[in-house]
């Protein structure tokens, strides 16, 4: 009898469990059946809408689809199914509140050039530990001590220009942002090492932006070789610095990395080198492109240039009186220039979008984002949406007298992968603008309009221009 009762009870428990599981599964199936793919066109088999994206202004590609389909739409680019998201809430969902459901994703060919251990390819503990260190090394507290060196890099570059000789503004600014990147990583570094790193990094960067075929004579093959030479140079620098006293720079941080419980974490040489190349990569074209755009906008809006110049000349006079160089405090007191910088970051939106990949099926506002699909928050569309920025095509720094609505202004991204270099970038931009407007006048050569994507948007041909020292006018 007892056995019958036990069997009956056991069956009851098993049946209840079975019903629960079935119901659960039904619910899951029901919710994913309810969630539908967003609207949009997947284009041709495999190539999707790649040709449309790369044969026209990408702004046009994104904005026409946003108008047609709304804030979330699907497409296929370079063989990958993608979901594009053009609203602040959706960007926040992917980058901040549900960031664990989306991992960073880059083509393998690009990852191999930067180095697979660079922090922006990772998630979880490894990413968190490296990111904390990078953030600390690039924090305002650390940067304020770098101002004299940043200033000296700016001065040495602009003093090398011959009066009135044409220069490619973007290429010149790339030299400057590379130099500042090196400064934040190594502190002081011998000139011949800097030059070798610059030469090889420039080849690597060219290959990064080329078609990734590893055949003799291609830019991609040259870039892989340049990377090998960089690894060798960086390896020698590491050996030299290994036994040096702890300094306040990124390399020293990599050599003395601790986890959240203050336990030493040993990074191997490859991890350190990949992260150094990663930071150089993240720091150079971005900042150079923003400075180039600022110079273009100041050239196009003479009244604004006058206002920025007046602000900077007041600072120059005050430091002449105090007989001092530009200080951190001076750069905190540049409200007009600061707003010009913010408006440039909005208008030009150097990083138009970023890529993530869904690690599981995700539902957002009734739409399904399937596992494995690429997800792209479109910063540019958000920055150019009239709902958040009135008359968005107008360059108007005064709009930043009022703080933008939350999550509508993300030139440095948002969430766990947001830019740890933003304070350094702003600092070097302000220092360069101070010296250019107080010492030089400039004229843009050739076409005055047009944008080139390489891949960051820059004024056409890198803004060829002539600069004159004010004293010689
Ligand atoms: C105006 C110049 C810059 C702009 C507009 C910019 C923008 C961005 C954006 C949008 C991201 C996030 C990308 C994503 O979510 O996928 C990012 C990440 C990053 N940036 Fe910047 N950046 C600039 C300058 C710099 C500088 C000067 C450095 C370093 C010296 C730097 C280092 C990094 C690093 C290491 C990451 C990856 C962070 C992570 O994955 O946790 N950036 N940047």
TrEMBL record:
Keyword Oxidoreductase part of the UniProt annotation: yes
Cofactor(s) named in the record: heme
SUPFAM superfamilies: Cytochrome P450
E.C. no: 1.14.14.137
Location (main, coarse): membrane
Entry's Gene Ontology BP terms: abscisic acid catabolic process; response to abscisic acid; response to water deprivation; sterol metabolic process
Recorded GO CC terms: membrane
Molecular-function GO terms, alphabetical: (+)-abscisic acid 8'-hydroxylase activity; heme binding; iron ion binding
Bilayer topology annotation: Single-pass membrane protein
Pfam families: p450
Compartments in which it is found: Membrane
Pathway linked to the protein: Plant hormone degradation; abscisic acid degradation
Catalytic reaction list: 2-cis-(+)-abscisate + reduced [NADPH--hemoprotein reductase] + O2 = (+)-8'-hydroxyabscisate + oxidized [NADPH--hemoprotein reductase] + H2O + H(+)
Binding sites annotated in the UniProt record for heme: 419
Keywords: Heme, Iron, Membrane, Metal-binding, Monooxygenase, Oxidoreductase, Transmembrane, Transmembrane helix
Top-level enzyme category: oxidoreductase
Family affiliation: Belongs to the cytochrome P450 family.
UniProt-listed PANTHER family: ABSCISIC ACID 8'-HYDROXYLASE 4, CYTOCHROME P450 26
Protein's recorded name: (+)-abscisic acid 8'-hydroxylase
Organism: Lithospermum erythrorhizon
């Amino acid at each position: 009898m007892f056995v019958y009762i036990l069997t009956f009870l056991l069956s009851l428990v098993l049946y209840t469990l079975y019903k629960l599981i079935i119901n659960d599964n039904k619910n899951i199936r029901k919710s994913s059946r309810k969630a539908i793919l967003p609207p949009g066109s997947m284009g041709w088999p495999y190539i999707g809408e790649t040709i449309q994206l790369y044969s026209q202004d990408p702004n046009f590609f994104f904005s026409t689809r946003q108008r047609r389909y709304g804030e979330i739409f699907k497409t296929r680019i370079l063989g990958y199914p993608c979901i594009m998201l053009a609203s602040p809430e959706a960007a926040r969902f992917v980058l901040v509140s549900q960031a664990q459901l989306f991992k960073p994703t880059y083509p393998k060919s690009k990852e191999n050039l930067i180095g697979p251990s660079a922090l922006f390819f990772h998630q979880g503990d490894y990413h968190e530990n490296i990111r904390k260190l990078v953030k600390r090394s690039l924090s305002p507290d650390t940067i304020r001590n770098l101002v004299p060196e940043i200033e000296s890099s700016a001065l040495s570059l602009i003093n090398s220009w011959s009066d009135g000789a044409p220069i490619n503004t973007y290429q010149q600014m790339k030299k400057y942002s590379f130099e500042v990147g090196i400064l934040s990583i190594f502190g002081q570094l011998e000139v011949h090492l800097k030059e070798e790193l610059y030469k090889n990094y420039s080849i690597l960067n060219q290959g990064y932006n080329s078609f990734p075929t590893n055949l003799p004579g291609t830019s991609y093959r040259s870039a892989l070789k340049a990377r090998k030479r960089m690894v060798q140079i960086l390896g020698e620098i590491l050996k030299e610095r290994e036994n040096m006293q702890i300094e306040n720079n990124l390399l020293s941080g990599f050599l003395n990395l601790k986890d959240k419980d203050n336990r030493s974490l040993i990074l191997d040489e490859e991890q350190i080198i990949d992260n150094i190349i990663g930071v150089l990569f993240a720091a150079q074209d971005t900042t150079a492109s923003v400075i180039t755009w600022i110079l273009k906008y100041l050239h196009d809006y003479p009244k604004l240039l006058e206002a920025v110049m007046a602000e900077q000349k007041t600072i120059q006079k005050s430091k002449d009186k105090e007989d001092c160089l530009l200080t951190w405090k001076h750069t905190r007191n540049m409200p007009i220039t600061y707003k010009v910088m913010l408006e440039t970051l909005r208008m030009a939106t150097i990083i138009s979008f970023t890529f993530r990949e869904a690690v599981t099926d995700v539902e957002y506002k009734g739409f399904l984002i399937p596992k494995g699909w690429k997800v792209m928050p479109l910063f540019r569309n958000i920055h150019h949406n009239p709902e958040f920025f009135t008359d968005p095509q107008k360059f108007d720094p005064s709009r930043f007298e009022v703080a933008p609505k939350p999550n509508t202004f993300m030139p440095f991204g948002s969430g766990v992968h947001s830019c740890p270099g933003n304070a350094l970038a702003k600092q070097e931009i302000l220092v360069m603008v101070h010296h250019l407007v107080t010492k030089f006048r400039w004229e843009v050569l050739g076409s005055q309009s047009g944008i080139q994507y390489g891949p960051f948007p820059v004024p056409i041909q890198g803004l060829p221009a002539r600069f004159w020292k004010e004293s010689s006018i």
